[in-house]
Amino acid sequence: VLDSQYGLYVWPCAVVLAQYVWAHRRSLPGKRVLEIGAGVSLPGVVAARCGARVILSDSEELPQCLQSCRSSCLLNRLPHVPVLGLTWGRVSPELLSLPPIDIILGSDVFFEPKDFEDILTTIYFLLEKNPHAQFWTTYQVRSADWSIEALLCKWNLRSIHVPLHSFGADKEHLASSSMPGRHTIEMMIISLAQSEGT
Fold this sequence. Notes:
The structure is a single chain. The chain has helices spanning about 10-25, 40-50, 65-75, 95, 115-130, 150-155, 170-175, and strands at about 30-35, 55-60, 85, 105, 135-140, 155-160, 185-190. The protein is α/β, with parallel strands linked by helices. It has a single domain, classed as Vaccinia Virus protein VP39 (Rossmann fold, 3-Layer(aba) Sandwich), CATH 3.40.50.150. The termini are far apart. One of its GO terms (cellular component) is nucleus. Belongs to the methyltransferase superfamily. METTL23 family.
C-alpha cells in the first residue's frame, strides 16, 4: 500500500530519469542541479554522486518528503547536500535565494493535473533567472486527456521529447513497476522558447 505522500516511493519515472543523469555523468561535475518534488531523490542523488552541486527540494508542506530527501543523502554519504522546502507556484524566500542553476530535475511531477500550472510557473521563474538552464523531466502517461502543451505555450516554454532508447532506458527492468497496469514512461527537456530564438 502506497503512502498518501507520493514522495516516499521510488516510482519508475525516477529510475528512468536517474538513468538519463547517469548517461550524462561526464558533463555533470561542477554543474548546479536542483531537483524539485524530489521525494526519495534518486535522480538528484545520482547527480550528486557524479560530481554535480545538487540542491534537493520538495513541498514545504510535506515534512515527511523533506525528511526522505535528507535520509537519502545520509544513506548515500552526501550529508552536505542542501534540502529545501519549495512549494510549486509559490514565491518564497527559499525560491528567491536559490543560487544559479544549470539543470532542474523532476521525475513524475506531472502527476496531478491541478498542479501542472503551478509546476510550470515555478519552472518558468527558474528558467527566467537561469536562461541557459534546462528542465529534465520524466512522466508516466496516465491519461490521454491531459497535456501540458497549452501551458508550455502560455509560459513561453518549449519541450523536446527524448526517446528512452537513446539513453538505454527502454529496458523493462528500468521503466517498469511492480504496480498493476501498463506503465508508459516518457521524457522531455523543457527550456525557454526564446532561448533558441523562437
